[in-house]
Design a protein that fits this description.
18-stranded antiparallel beta barrel, about 5% helix, mainly beta, 1 helix
Length: about 375
């Protein structure tokens, strides 16, 4: 399946570059390593070499067709207790294809995430997942009027074979390990089949940009009464036209199951999950001599969530034309539990040096702490743009 995905994206990239006169290409290669990782627990502090990671990403943008493919290669696990070991792994880590037809009235997207701007957390550097009107599957987006996008998305699955066939005996059976999506309107198990039926995570949503603000709404799993969620989001650059240089984002989602902050919980921390999830952030620039981003997110009913509140702060300093410094601080807290767990604290300082217009070297310190346990890494990277 991964091979087919790679071939599909590479074919689309090739087609986009040859079929359109005006093509914009964005690509980079990034080689990185955490150099050394220190971990402290109890009276013991250990250090390991995390290895290397190389990421390459290519994106082609045209008037009517966009496509992207991203690949990652890792070399890790250099030692164990007895032997010297080198292990490696590589994969297509992300990709998408988006085609706009009928004078951009209709968009056909594959593996295409389409998020309202109000879902973005600039310090966490990710979108709240409940606002995505696209998916890892197939997405249709309709633009009936200027500024409005209406989306519908169905998921992909790696295993769509419910029925198995034994070539030697000619026996037809049921795949017990089926992991796909089946649309069963009555939700009942069929006679003779194991209880593996489930609803696909179908999604509906809309995004409307009215100039001074953008509004978004997204519904996930709307066929499943035990898992469905709906989220509402707002974004405004310039604080609804009142203050230039202040960007505002906010959102709220309710789930009949559980929703979470995202895919990147802090070091060895558990995610924030719950039925009611909110997010808010401010980005400030131009009106101050540095950039500032502050954000918060959490849930309002988190009895079984490890943490229920997250906050983050980022300061950016342009030292000169070649040198810049980012300082990040964050925390996950449990505010609802009388016997609250220790806060999960995070800090990072990163210094970027533009060696050339195409090459950037970054050195950083990354620190995470919870109770008496802490972790520290020293990431370095070299990024080359093509």
């Amino acid at each position: 399946m991964k091979i087919l995905k790679t071939i599909a994206v590479l074919a689309a990239l090739s087609m986009a570059s040859s079929a359109f006169a005006e093509v914009k290409v964005k690509a980079f290669n990034k080689l990185s390593s955490d150099i050394v990782e220190l971990e402290h627990s109890g009276d013991e502090t250990t250090n390991t070499f995390p290895g290397f990671k190389n990421k390459i990403k290519a994106e082609i943008l045209t008037d009517h067709l966009d496509a992207m493919v991203e690949g990652v290669f890792k070399i890790t696990d250099f030692t164990n207790e007895n032997d010297y070991v080198v292990a490696w792994d590589g994969a297509v880590s992300d990709w998408y294809v988006e085609a706009r037809v009928l004078d951009d009235l209709l968009t056909l997207g594959y593996h295409d995430n389409i998020n309202p701007e109000g879902t973005y957390l600039p310090v966490y550097d990710d979108n709240v997942g409940t606002g995505n009107i696209g998916s890892d599957g197939f997405t249709l987006v309709l633009r009936p009027v200027e500024g409005l996008r209406l989306g519908f998305s169905v998921p992909f699955t790696d295993d769509t074979s419910l029925v198995t066939y034994d070539v030697e005996t000619g026996t037809v059976g049921v795949n017990e390990d089926f992991g796909g999506n089946i649309l069963v309107m009555d939700g009942e198990t069929k006679e003779g089949c194991p209880d593996i039926w489930k609803y696909p995570n179908l999604r509906l949503g809309a995004i409307y940009n009215m100039g001074i603000a953008e509004f978004g709404v997204a519904a996930h799993d709307f066929l499943d009464s035990k898992q469905r969620s709906i989220g509402f989001y707002v974004y405004s650059a310039g604080l609804f036209g009142q203050v230039k240089g202040i960007d505002f984002r906010a959102g709220f989602a309710h789930s009949w199951g559980k929703v979470a902050l995202g895919d990147k919980p802090f070091y060895k921390g558990k995610d924030i999950t719950g039925e009611n999830f909110w997010n808010v952030s401010f980005e400030i620039s131009e009106i101050i001599p540095f950039s500032l981003a502050v954000e918060a997110a959490g849930n309002t009913n988190s009895d079984d969530s490890a943490y229920d509140f997250y906050t983050g702060l980022k300061l950016g300093f342009g030292i000169n034309e070649q040198l810049s410094l980012d300082v990040i601080a964050g925390a996950e807290l449990d505010l609802s539990d009388e016997n609250a767990k220790k806060a999960m604290l995070h800090g990072k300082a990163a210094l970027d040096y533009n060696v050339t217009k195409l090459d950037t070297v970054e050195v950083a310190v990354d620190y995470n702490k919870c109770d008496e346990k802490w972790n520290m890494k020293f990431p370095v990277s070299w990024k080359h743009k093509f």
